[in-house]
């Protein structure tokens, strides 16, 4: 099994006043040639956005973009939706940029900060028609149980959002002293594990809050929760 440890404090950081951004991979003005991607995973930004602030209208193309609000309410508007779409912290949003899309994202609250994970995954199909989706995922459904959020358009798993890549995005909340055995889709896949909160051990490596571990070249691995912990798994093709 191959592992790469990504410590929380080693992420790129940008303070824009209204935006506090942590970059797991090279993004915008942050560049690290050793952190360009993890397989098809290109971006994982951990953003805190001030009330009423956000990103004005800007373009994307040929990228699968997944947004997970951790706290607060995100408001989204794009070429396909002239009205603002609200995405709460119990929902996940996906957007296939495809041939091109313009969108805006803002903090939907006038008082509370918004914390989101924004994920970019390189698609396996180019120049598709843009598409949008969002779905609610109950917190109780991931208590000591793997909750699948996003899968490939080619997979048939019910109740998940879909993107144009052979990827799986999932979450689990583990009670202290609980274990979970994660099984990968294939030998060509790797998993980027973000420890959202708590303290876990994977293959003798301990992850604290916002530490991450890239795992590849294995069929499965065991996770042990040393404290109550929440984890995000981004499983992607490595080549």
Automatic annotation (TrEMBL):
Cofactor binding mode and count: Binds 1 Fe cation per subunit.
Keyword entries, A-Z: Iron, Metal-binding
Membrane-spanning residues: none
UniProt source species: Bizionia argentinensis JUB59
Record's keyword annotation contains Metal-binding: yes
GO molecular function list: metal ion binding
Name of the protein this chain belongs to: Pirin family protein
Protein family per UniProt: Belongs to the pirin family.
Leader sequence residues: none
Keyword rRNA-binding among record annotations: no
Annotated Fe cation binding sites: 58, 60, 103, 105
Cofactor(s) needed: Fe cation
Pirin N-terminal domain: residues covered: 11-121
Xref: Pfam families: Pirin, Pirin_C_2
Domain Quercetin 2,3-dioxygenase C-terminal cupin: 149-236
């Amino acid at each position: 099994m191959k592992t790469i440890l990504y410590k929380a404090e080693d992420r790129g950081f940008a303070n824009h006043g209204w935006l506090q951004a942590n970059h797991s991979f090279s993004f915008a003005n942050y560049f690290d040639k050793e952190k360009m991607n993890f397989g098809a995973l290109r971006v994982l930004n951990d953003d805190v956005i001030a009330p009423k602030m956000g990103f004005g209208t800007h373009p994307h193309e040929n990228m699968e973009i997944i947004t997970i609000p951790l706290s607060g309410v995100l408001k989204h508007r794009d070429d396909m939706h002239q009205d603002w779409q609200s995405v709460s912290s119990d929902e996940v949003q996906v957007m296939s940029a495809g041939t091109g899309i313009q969108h805006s994202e803002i903090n939907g609250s006038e008082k509370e900060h918004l914390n989101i994970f924004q994920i970019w995954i390189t698609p396996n199909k180019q120049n598709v028609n843009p598409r949008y989706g969002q779905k609610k995922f109950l917190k109780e459904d991931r208590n000591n149980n793997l909750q699948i959020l996003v899968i490939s358009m080619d997979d048939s798993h019910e109740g998940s959002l879909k993107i144009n890549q052979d990827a799986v995005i999932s979450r689990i909340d583990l009670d202290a002293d609980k274990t979970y055995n994660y099984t990968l889709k294939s030998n060509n896949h790797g998993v980027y594990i973000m420890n959202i909160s708590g303290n876990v051990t994977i293959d003798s490596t301990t992850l604290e809050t916002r530490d991450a571990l890239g795992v590849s070249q294995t069929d499965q691995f065991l996770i042990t929760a040393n404290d109550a912990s929440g984890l995000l798994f981004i499983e992607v093709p490595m080549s």
